[in-house]
Amino acid sequence: MRCSGRWARAMAILREFEENCGTPIGKLRQVADAMAVEMHAGLASEGGSKLKMLISYVDNLPSGEENGLFYALDLGGTNFRVIRVLLGGKDGGVVKQEFEEVSIPPHLMTGSSDALFGFIATALANFVATESEGLHPSPGRQRELGFTFSFPVRQTSIASGNLIKWTKGFLIDDVVGQDVVGELTKAMERIGLDMRVSALVNDTIGTLAGGRYHNPDVIAAVILGTGTNAAYVERAQAIPKWHGLLPKSGEMVINMEWGNFRSSHLPLTEYDQDLDVESLNPGEQIFEKIISGMYLGEIVRRVLLKMAEEAAFFGDIVPPKLKIPFILRTPHMSAMHHDESSDLRVVGSKLKDILEIPHTSLKMRKAIVELCDIVATRGARLSAAGIVGIIKKLGRDTVKDGDKQKSVIAMDGGLYEHYSKFSTCMESTLKELLEKKFLTTSPLSSLTMAQALELLS
Ligand SMILES: Nc1ncnc2c1ncn2[C@@H]1O[C@H](COP(=O)(O)OP(=O)(O)O)[C@@H](O)[C@H]1O
Ligand SMILES: O=P(O)(O)OC[C@H]1O[C@@H](O)[C@H](O)[C@@H](O)[C@@H]1O
């Protein structure tokens, strides 16, 4: 009786959580509409919305005919990458590329500016030293560097911008408000590395530019990695807060910083509130905290902890490791969620290896997989609603009769790339949102909305 009472209590906790995470199609439509409204508000004036809608100064996207040797570095929320690429012009495409990826030492995320940028400059110098034959710049030509920086920056030009705030797991006070290109340039000079930063872009804009290099129909980009964000191509005339010269192209890429989106329609739970309060940036990045890779595993841990504390889900003793924030990472959650074995042995091994919970029954493991599915489904469906918000803002959510318009969204990020149940759910939700919309407007169009919208990884 005691066990069955505990089991019932644990299942009640799980059912309540599932209820509060619900994303019925009507709610997703409200989220999409709210995203479009906030986009307009963020373009109208500085501070007009939680969406910063940052001007990127990128008003000319790649044509695919570029040529030459280029270096890039990408500072993300978890990984740091250095890349060199030789582009071969119209017919040559990407002739050769080499890259190295390193995990960012956690202590650098909360240390000093000199330590972080010194680490970056040194890694870059080491990479430049490995240039192989055929990958040298033309004699006398300074090496140029594209700097992809995955944090909100108020750009002051294509190659300069001041950090607005840190997000994800970073918190380095002496960089906030500083020009991150200046910080990197000083670090490169300190070690005698002769390179010029010719562009500073957010990683969503890098993804959009990379997508457009291959496909002229790319109009937006979404990152689902450690954090989440989106960028898209806006008409320069549609940016009231922009008082600069109108670009020749008539276009301006906008970094939405959609991770900071907030709406009363978002299905937030007590676990999300607690996670936010205890985070490095309380009150900020709420959308990011319920859909991106840094946080999904942590949400699962918090629900399991409540089930353990209030329903003795793992027995009379609450497993000590279960109390450690962020000990359960999203890749661990993903492995459990994708466990196809009949006895859910992957779930069992993760619980044993990560949380030191050696014995679990099959029905416990099934409940844990169900919990992973609830968290991932909410994140995936909200991501799709965000994309539909962009499409709606651009007036591309309906296809006029006979119109062959294609809207391609460039996708990137380790969560999207590796968590297949997440990305599959996101894509099916997009179809659900667009097909329904399509059927209520003009069912005779040559393209269904789902066909008119394509995701490019
Ligand atoms: N196998 C996986 N399953 C689910 N999520 C994953 C997996 N591997 C990585 N991730 C998520 O992707 C994030 C890394 O994203 P990535 O885009 O590679 O780097 P960054 O966020 O530093 O730019 C990790 O923080 C993690 O949350
Ligand atoms: O590539 P990452 O680390 O997942 O970053 C995605 C997004 O993470 C958010 O936290 C940042 O504010 C964005 O600027 C960034 O684009």
TrEMBL record:
InterPro entries for this protein: ATPase_NBD, Hexokinase, Hexokinase_C, Hexokinase_N
Gene Ontology cellular-component terms listed: cytosol; mitochondrial outer membrane
SUPFAM superfamilies xrefs: Actin-like ATPase domain
One Gene Ontology MF term: ATP binding
Stretches that traverse the bilayer: none
Top-level lineage group: Eukaryota
Positions of the Hexokinase N-terminal domain: 14-213
Span of domain Hexokinase C-terminal: 220-437
Pathway: Carbohydrate degradation; glycolysis; D-glyceraldehyde 3-phosphate and glycerone phosphate from D-glucose: step 1/4; Carbohydrate metabolism; hexose metabolism
Reaction equations catalysed: D-fructose + ATP = D-fructose 6-phosphate + ADP + H(+); a D-hexose + ATP = a D-hexose 6-phosphate + ADP + H(+)
EC numbers for this chain: 2.7.1.-
Main location: mitochondrion
Keywords tagged on the record: ATP-binding, Glycolysis, Kinase, Membrane, Mitochondrion, Mitochondrion outer membrane, Nucleotide-binding, Transferase
CDD domains found in the cross-reference section: ASKHA_NBD_HK_plant
UniProt subcellular location: Mitochondrion outer membrane
GO biological process, one term: glycolytic process
UniProt similarity note: Belongs to the hexokinase family.
The protein's name: Phosphotransferase
Species for this entry: Populus alba x Populus x berolinensis
